[in-house]
Structures
1.
Amino acid sequence: MTVSDVVVVGAGFAGLSAAHALVGAGLRTIVLEARDRVGGRVLTRVLPDGTQLDLGGQWVGPTQRHMQRLIAEYGLETYPTPEYGRPILDYGGTRPDRRPDEIVALLDRLDDLSRQIFPERPWDHPRAQEWDTLTLAAWLSTQNAPDTAVRYVGRVIAGGLLSCDAGEVSLLDTLFYVTSGGGTTALLDTVGGAQAYRVGSGAQRLAERLAADLPEGTIRLEEPVRRIVHSPTGAHVETDHGVHPARHVIVAIPPSLAGRIDYSPSLPAQRDALTQRMPAGYALKVHAIYAAPFWRDRGLSGLSTSDSGILTETVDNTPPGSPRAVLTAFAYGIDAHALRRHDPAQRRHLVLDRLAELFGEDARAPEDFIEFDWCDEPWTRGCFSAHPTLGTWTAYGPALRPPIGALHWAGTETASTWNGYFDGAVESGLRAAAEIAPDHRH
Ligand SMILES: Cc1cc2nc3c(=O)[nH]c(=O)nc-3n(C[C@H](O)[C@H](O)[C@H](O)COP(=O)(O)OP(=O)(O)OC[C@H]3O[C@@H](n4cnc5c(N)ncnc54)[C@H](O)[C@@H]3O)c2cc1C
């Protein structure tokens, strides 16, 4: 039986990036992927008429340097998020034409505090314990801001960024996430921010290009890893189809899924406890497809953010030259779970009702309505990414990255920069590869 230098578990951006670096360093590497495709949380679907949808992750931003490099390396085209009119800010029943000062003040305060956090070690801050057991909602409620501002900021930060509710994420995790992405402006904005542009052919194409660039036979699809028998000098990785011996293993999957693998011997208690306390967030991303972008005729950009209603955000997601127009809507946390409990027809009705309130009656009659629930995906189980529950950063955070003998940890949830994003996934894969082949850092 051939012994690999490294077995990588998972062919998302983290695993693929790790494999690239390792192969580049001359190490015998294989990637075991549970699904019948690469890319993980990216999934591009092209409808019969050519309308293209990214059902998973889609945007990249100008400060995401790993993604910039990959897009340039593979010569992929990008296009900016369309903004042909005004965005809607649905705020306490009004539609102000700019962010009210009370929202700006709350975001500024979050930015100020976040700059005090080292993203590599959020647990080291002098007030880490206090902030780790305080929810974002509780902190917002002490900021002498109007209820509407508290609700709005809670929804766009906890929902739009962390795909949770403000009542379930800690202030410490929020501050970590904000600093990891370079501040609320970089995280929330379209122009110049994390939602600046999309990959022309769809985000999944980039993952496919990365995979195609690896030596033949490196990627083994439909090989879910069930068990890892490990020692300080190597491991045997067991899938449904066989056993793969290796000197090192990089586990490049979301933490809760990493916790479902059976390790022998068991992992140290701190690492095991961490994976039990990092559940995936929950966002529902749905696409309403229309013959034409009717909202643009009304001077609207299709972008909206709301302090109430089941949809927190919408965006004009129409690719240039697309045969039809796409309005994409997002629900987060409790709203997303509430929608999920309805049957598809009711869910469609509720979403279109809300789109009609925002953009007018034309929104009620899309030609297509496409949804994809990442909670139903056994190899993802939620999205956009996972977050430590209250108290977890300070009690178990230090176990996030350190290798355990032959085992190394990657995946966007282990990144210190752009955690939760593609870019963080790539960073994590390169970091884990560098732990094994330190002289071949990208
Ligand atoms: C709806 C949605 C919208 C998003 N929007 C954006 C966005 O606009 N921009 C952005 O930057 N990010 C976005 N994200 C987040 C982004 O997609 C992720 O951060 C990134 O893709 C994670 O990459 P990863 O390699 O860490 O993990 P994953 O992509 O989850 O890859 C893990 C891989 O491991 C496989 N796997 C799991 N368990 C096993 C096992 N036991 N054995 C073998 N294989 C296994 C999985 O099948 C998967 O292929 C979004 C995500 C979603 C779902």
2.
Amino acid sequence: MRQQIARAWPRTIVAQITVLIAISLTLSCIMTAIALHFIQPEPLARLGQASALVRATTIVQLAQRSESDAEIDALLAHANRAGIPVEKIDTPKSLENLSDEGRSVLARYFRRLGGPLDIHGIEKIAFRDNALIVVLDKVSLKLRMPANWTPPPGRVPRFMGVPLMFVLIAVTTFSVVLLFYAARWVIAPLSSFAAAAQAFGRSPKSDYALSEDGPREIALVARALNEMRDRIRELVERRTLMLAAIGHDLRTPLTRLRLHAEQVDSAVIRNRMVREITIIDNMLSDTLAYLKDDSHSEPLSSVDLPSLLQTICTAYIDSGFNVSYQGIDRAIYVCRAASLKRAITNFIENGTKYSSEVVVGLKYLESDVCIEIADNGPGISPDIKEKVFKPFFKGDPSRSGLNRTGFGLGLSIARDIIQAHGGQIDLCDRKPHGLRVHIKLPSKPRMSP
Ligand SMILES: Nc1ncnc2c1ncn2[C@@H]1O[C@H](COP(=O)(O)OP(=O)(O)O)[C@@H](O)[C@H]1O
Ligand SMILES: [Mg+2]
């Protein structure tokens, strides 16, 4: 059954909306019919009620016109014989005690039905215990009305009354609710486009494919977008592979070049050559690390953080830089060790590029592990503090005094790694000058996948 409905369901948005409106109108009409059936009394019943009122009015008119008590008695006797139950009663002391229900309406009906005859004191009329009580000049009458008789509705014209209001409210509510859900349902696939675009924007590797069901127009767009996503992903992957291959293949001749350079006789030229080769080598490592992005794939391992930091410092000290470690002696930490080492190396490397002294610190602060890399260089001006983390962003190379800037990937790689560990980086100024890189890592890393 469900499948049959699904098969018969129109495929285009226009047809779907048309069908939905038709369904909602049909349901509204059915609701209206049901409402009217229950609210509106039978036409015949209405006729009965009206004729009882007309009969009562006639008796009251005749009684009012009667000239003697005998005439009234005769009138009442005739009426009762004709099946109109009416009796004389003692004039009620006060009509206030009588039910007020429909009094003014009744009075108006009496006046209208009575034509030119002015029924004096007709306001003295009430409806109680299913009987009309009418106080006339000469006599008070009690006219029993048929069972279930109610005073007719007054001021409001019949068609503007409760039934019409009910119909209006029912139809409007029904149509609005139905159309709201229907429209949402038709448009729902569109909102998933935004989610897919966002996911793809964050990472072209995202597998978020758009559903190709739904109305035909939307399915066509979804298919086109899915194909475009696949093509872009393929393009990005091909470029990445190509760059990685170039980077990787350059390594071999570079290693050979280093071997040759080390055989150069002149110490001055040899050192210069080795330094340049090291710079190219570092640039290649940065590029490969950036392209590989294994900050998310490396397995976790336990390391002693102070030893890891000291190892990096020692490597720089051996190369003649003024780098020192000042921090706690032992701190076992579970992390992606190689990635973390690369991140911290990138910060220390920058410190050695831009300053003459780098101090690396490590301490626990509440539940966080804090690593600090401070230098006495020029620091980073506030307007580029966020930009330096962007891939390929390089500050003014002349500021370093050395032509040792890389591709501008170091900080971007480092931030990816720290964030993958659930940590964060703050770049602070150091007095009188210099940069303090403040890395806060959760003591139990919350690894992002
Ligand atoms: N310790 C530092 N002192 C001053 N400027 C720095 C420091 N570290 C980074 N920078 C600035 O941030 C930029 C980006 O750094 P990075 O991403 O490591 O790229 P790269 O080292 O390849 O230039 C650098 O070009 C430099 O302008
Ligand atoms: Mg760098």
3.
Amino acid sequence: MLSVSGIRKAFPGVQALAGVKLEVKAGEIHALVGENGAGKSTLTRIIAGVESPDEGEIRLGEAVVQWHGPAQAKAAGIHVIYQEFVLFPHLTVAENIFLGRMPRNRLGLLDHAQAERRSREILDRLGVSIDVRQQVRLLTVADQQMVEIAKAMIDTPKVLILDEPTAVIAGREVELLFTRLRRLREAGVAIIYISHRLDEIFALCDRLTVIKDGQWIATQPVAGMTRDTLITMMVGRDLAHLFPPHEQPPPAQPDVVLQAQDIHVGRRVLGCSLELHAGIITGLAGMVGSGRSELAMAIFGGLPMERGTVTIAGRSFRTITPGQAISLGIGFVTEDRKGQGLAMLQPIGANISAASLETVRRGVMRDGRREWQIAEEDIASYQIACRGPGTLVSTMSGGNQQKVLIARWARACHRVLILDEPTRGVDVGARAEIYRIMRGLAARGIAILMISSELPEVVGMSDRVYVMREGSITGILEKDEITEEAVVDLATHDRQAA
Ligand SMILES: Nc1ncnc2c1ncn2[C@@H]1O[C@H](COP(=O)(O)OP(=O)(O)OP(=O)(O)O)[C@@H](O)[C@H]1O
Ligand SMILES: [Mg+2]
């Protein structure tokens, strides 16, 4: 159905693609895998006509095509769900789904009622209940992703490309998405699926293509492959320990660094209490939407709490601002790195220093040399793929952006580091790096709170785990009690049965 070959694309200073090929059949789900910065998203944008290749050929069916802009590719039946959302925050859900294709009534006027009805149908089929009249900016990140997916379902595309569609959804939503994708496969759609979650590739895909540094490495059927062979192909070495072993056992009677008591935030957090300990990695697990992020935000001062107290280093707060939290040594790596985290149009250096400006000031001046030096250290220790501290964050791949965000807060915090889905969109190699960094920070005595929807990560990294369900904490697991089953049980048990 779709085949590309010999694709090359250079950006100033980077050869993003250096001769990639990819061939996808009708009725096939084809995984495109590779490390952060391998060139997956760039290839996607070329297939979709958003960027033009320097060299190479794109064939759709038998015909060689050359796109002049994305509208042409779309008209030819290529639909892409991008890694970074392209939703308009102030438009409603229905307006976003039908953007540029709003149905018209007999008088030629925009037919909002029809758009809303059809949007509701599509979302129903995806198994999500979202108010189609609501503005997109008011939705959770997971719901925004479902809107993004719904856009692709209006009419059946010939080629559907999904660039990390499950980065912000989990559990049931992922299952429903897979069911839809399998149906589209039966209908003969050629699907390209990009994900860093290897278990999804094994569960969903028929064949896979590995790319590395912009080059084609291999194309193979998924059946018969093992996780280890796939990782070796992607990373070029095997990863014995994804989760680093403890160098020293975590402290047996650690100091309480932060205490949150009876926190209430709207209807999302209904009286939660937790304690964070020096040198301990505390997991905060639960389904997407269970209130984990809101609880963490409230502790950091990013959301107002209606009730409750936060005690940090002996000081109690009924209201707290992010400024106060930061000055007390709390860092927060948000889940929405684009919206709330990084300054996309700024270089790496400024992004890393953004939360610890006092370290790069000389009097009232900004010390550019120091900022550059700090960035160089972090680029090396986190293995951030870039040209140097001056690289603009907007030109970096998703996983590398995430490392920049973590580097910023690791510099700024000295008591508590809160990480919301720290490895979302991060490749296996870099993921191991991030885990190593987290362990290192804990070993220095920092209390870590890690929100995660990935069970292996919760189990592999946490010394203690709080599990949330529908705004409440339903259990605390310690050491050996931390198993995937125990977490799922606490996260999903329904109220009547409990
Ligand atoms: N507009 C741009 N300007 C400069 N460099 C770019 C631009 N877009 C991408 N790059 C570079 O091209 C390379 C490939 O990036 P790409 O986003 O395609 O990687 P990816 O495989 O999608 O990674 P990830 O898994 O992190 O999403 C990277 O080195 C990236 O920094
Ligand atoms: Mg990408």
4.
Amino acid sequence: MTRKKRAAVTTTPAKGIPIAAGGSVLRPLKAAEVVARDVVRDITAKGLQPGDCLPSEAQMLQTYGVSRESLREGLRLLEVQGMISIRRGPGGGPIVGTVDSANLGRMEALFYHLAGATYDELFEAWLFAESTLARLAATNPDAALREQVMEPYLSGDVEDAEHEDLEVYLSGHEGFHGAVSGLTGNRVFQLTFRAYGQVVAHHLSTVGDVHVRKLHRKLADDHLKLAQAIVDGNGDLASTLMHDHLSEVIAITRRELGSLLEGPVGWL
Ligand SMILES: [Zn+2]
């Protein structure tokens, strides 16, 4: 994969925009948002899965009774969240996408950025969230499931290869943490708590030239110990190991990115 350009150092003041009290919960939906909501309702009602086709534009215009502009805007709202994708050209059309906490993270990063939230705050949230996920995974009452999901990481084989490509490394690393979060049995935690790590991973992949992969072997060993603690059902140990593991990742990230971590979290 091609390496992206190093992101410019942000000059936005760290103060940011004060976080509002939440009055927007009462904001009425715009026409495009109503369309987006109705499309999502239909996806759910029909039990559609990633890759399934949605109706054509002509059919949706008839079904939802809105202008072409509102329909397209509504679909676009879902497209940027990855929840649908739109194949352009003849034979194209909207298809069902994925539910990916990375897209949630991208949205959250915008909020952190404008609110002036710092990388220290992001890392603190990440440590808290992933330690909690590890504890919940280890205390999942289904021991057979814990063993089945963690089994690939117990030998270390799955992560044995040294990756030259940062993005390949990051997706492998995220794979382990995603597997842990999947064992929590709580999809709200899985989505929201994983998003912090996804924000960090996205930042690393965007700035590039990070040598986290130099410590790949050590980090894979951490995963092995974590996987064992989860299989053993040891919540306290899993939580502590995860905290220590990510503290190390954060230390490396600080060392590699240096001044890029000053100021508010970037929206990259
Ligand atoms: Zn890790």
